Amino acid sequence: MKHSAVTDKILSNYREGRKAIAWLIDPDKLADKADFLAQLKIVQRHHLDFIFIGGSLVESNGTEEIIATIKQIDTTIPVILFPGNASQFTPNADAILFLSLISGRNPEFLIGQHVTVAPLLAKSKMEVLPTGYMLVDGGVTTSVNYISQTIPLPNNKPEIALATALAGSFLGLKYFYLDAGSGAQVPVSSSIIQAIKSQIDAPLIVGGGLNTLDKVKSSFKAGADVVVIGNGAEKNLSLLTEVLEYVHVLNLSLNIN
Ligand SMILES: CC(C)=CCC/C(C)=C/CC/C(C)=C/CC/C(C)=C/COP(=O)(O)OP(=O)(O)O
Ligand SMILES: O=P(O)(O)OC[C@@H](O)CO
Ligand SMILES: [Mg+2]
């Protein structure tokens, strides 16, 4: 894969208004390898855009092997690390979401883990995606919430979310991720997505609690560029394939009009 391949793919989708889906794989929750291989073959046929891999708290050290397995099946779907901390770094991914938790005030997640991993990243030459990560209140205490010991943004205060994203943008962050947290009861509100989309010229990733096609549609309609699906796919892979079909048709219609 070319060194800027992931950045190029995200940015060209963004500029052309093409929507994309990321499948979030939690390395601790993978069923057996044969199941995983079968799942990979299915999503590959449905034009999956990205694979994210990581978690707030990852106990196994199987990430490297999972990535190697993915690469055996498909070398075209970018595998992007979505790390909860520096120890989840592994050099065989294509890119890393270099998340700064700008909704919080915990220095460890604003800059601390980043310093720890930076020398490894420099050696690996991995693509780095500087991302303003904003945790939004999804109605339950999520793992990110607890592990990061930060207060999420209120889901009904778009002006605070926008001020946060603007600050991140002025700091030079290139991507923004609005996350209601894995398994959120309520996804990130459309008003927050819209507020950020209308003022910030950067790809917007949205995830957390998007466990039905309708919720995914609403996120895209409000302005999400990349939608992340984790729990929904863990419970039922056909949600992911249904969503992928929808996005494929949506993107085809862009070419026609
Ligand atoms: C730059 C590096 C190396 C690390 C960044 C570290 C930061 C700032 C992380 C942000 C806060 C955080 C803990 C994010 C984790 C996000 C993530 C991968 C969530 C996936 O879902 P889980 O929170 O694991 O959900 P479950 O509890 O359902 O498994
Ligand atoms: O597992 P779900 O609820 O789909 O959330 C995905 C991701 O945005 C969590 O960080
Ligand atoms: Mg997890």
UniProtKB/TrEMBL annotation:
It holds the Pfam family PcrB. Transmembrane segments: none annotated. GO terms for biological process: glycerophospholipid biosynthetic process. The keyword Lipid metabolism applies. Gene3D superfamilies: FMN-linked oxidoreductases. Its cofactor is Mg(2+). Its EC number is 2.5.1.41. Belongs to the GGGP/HepGP synthase family. Group II subfamily. This is Geranylgeranylglyceryl phosphate synthase. It comes from Belliella pelovolcani. The lineage of its organism: Bacteria, Pseudomonadati, Bacteroidota, Cytophagia, Cytophagales.
